[in-house]
């Protein structure tokens, strides 16, 4: 690896050449529009490339990522992204996507000390504490993935509870919130069924999704 990262610039030029050759005018068209229907809120993990997982082109998926796909009510970064997506881009779907074997969730589950990020992971520890009784009943080798799924549920509910989404629903704007998990072991996305299109749907959707997780891990 070079000091100036010339290999990345070389790769970029080759990618741009191939893209333009495959679809002439691609970049000029991209310059004219950004009309995504989806906001993806995912983990910053380099193994989870949002656009590629759902086979969408740049401009078709608006993306926000952080460690362990957290949506904290005090995080102005995430809230600003959600507001711009909903009010500016008029996205119709907000998808919170966690993934199996998440390092941030692992740190929260096992009380690992990593440094400054421990303060951020505290949000996931809160999820662990909330569902401690359930996690205690899950086999040790499955607890990490169970907490990854529970974290998605809690963060999706946090999205639903933001003033941005609540205000959008109050004025009749079509916004649907979803919670998914991505399997690193098989490359597949799974819908955790926490899907809400109105404020009234949030609580029953959360309960049904939580029951689904409980049933799945109790049966394992």
Automatic annotation (TrEMBL):
Statement: the UniProt record of this protein carries the keyword Nucleus: no
SMART domains: Pro_CA (SM00947)
Cross-referenced Pfam families: Pro_CA
Record-level GO BP terms: carbon utilization
UniProt keywords, alphabetically: Lyase, Metal-binding, Zinc
InterPro entries (alphabetical): Carbonic_anhydrase, Carbonic_anhydrase_CS, Carbonic_anhydrase_sf
Binding site for Zn(2+): 43, 45, 99, 102
Family indicated by similarity: Belongs to the beta-class carbonic anhydrase family.
Protein name as annotated: Carbonic anhydrase
The encoding gene: can
